[in-house]
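During the no-cost extension, the postdoctoral fellow (Dr. R.K.) reprocessed legacy sequence entries with the updated structure-token encoder. One reprocessed record is reproduced below for audit purposes.
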Amino acid sequence: MLVRSPLSLVMMLLTAGLLPAAEPPGNPIYDQPLAAAADPDFAIQGEYAGQLDTGLGPIKTGARVIALGNGTFHTVLYLGGLPGEGWNKEVYEGDGVMKDGAAVFQQPQGSGRIQNGTLTMTTSEGDVVGTLSRTERKSPTLGQKPPEGAVVLFDGKSAAAFDNARITDDGLLIPPATSRQKFASCQLHLEFRTPYMPQARDQGRGNSGCYLQGRYEVQILDSFGLAGKNNECGGIYSVKDPDSNLCYPPLTWQTYDIDYTTADYDASGKKLKNARMTVRHNGVVIHENVELPRATTAAPVAEGPEKGPLYLQDHGNPVRFRNIWIVEKSGG
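Re-encoded structure tokens follow.
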């Protein structure tokens, strides 16, 4: 029997063949994948991709399963594929809990089961309508080497290019970090990783920020599976939502590649033209030549004609950075 409504596909029973373990007390924070593996929910959360038959033939479909701590989950189904891979803007959502050694999402219309990395979806009558396999996407610009003439701010060896910055034992940059060199128009590449904080919510879950010239923030946050707002990952904070939420699961390395053009000022310091930026998140354009009418909320540097630093915000969460470099534009 085929599913007659896409909505019924997400009213599902989601089961993982993993035995639950006691959740650490309080608000657990994992900044390394090996440590996070001790939490059985970490193996369930993630992205899944495949095809489902909605009654009109197979359709490419993606799913995100978000761990919320203590054996609870939220799932988002994307018809057309995962964001950045064909999603048609249609989503359906559901919640679930650990039950009898499984993570269970259930409604009368349908069900699903994850086992050995495969999500099998069925109708309420038990007919299989498709399978989605767990996938781990990688940004196409991950590990990109700086071109000749680039200013290398961090390569894992030293934090000397920043004020108030430290390095982890495994060579990652710890914010806060303010570059000693200041820049005008430029192209920025940086790589970041948010921690796994399953019980945290909203702005308390893997929060940081990347400020161009210390003035304009592209938000960094564990926004995996969220709607994609200006205060979520990829958003130009308080200015514009990203065109799509390309945030990967926590503890996955991600990239920002930002083309930034500084504002123009006259000799008296009056602004004549706003700054602009194009942002690629994990290789996908989420802001294209967006005008920045003002400095974003909590920017440490006021708008002005002077060059400004790259500032990486510390918001109390162990967000980590690596492979940071800038190419200055001619005349910038």
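The first helix runs from residue 33 to 36. The CA atoms of residues 122 and 278 lie 42 Å apart. The remaining legacy entries will be reprocessed before the final report is submitted.
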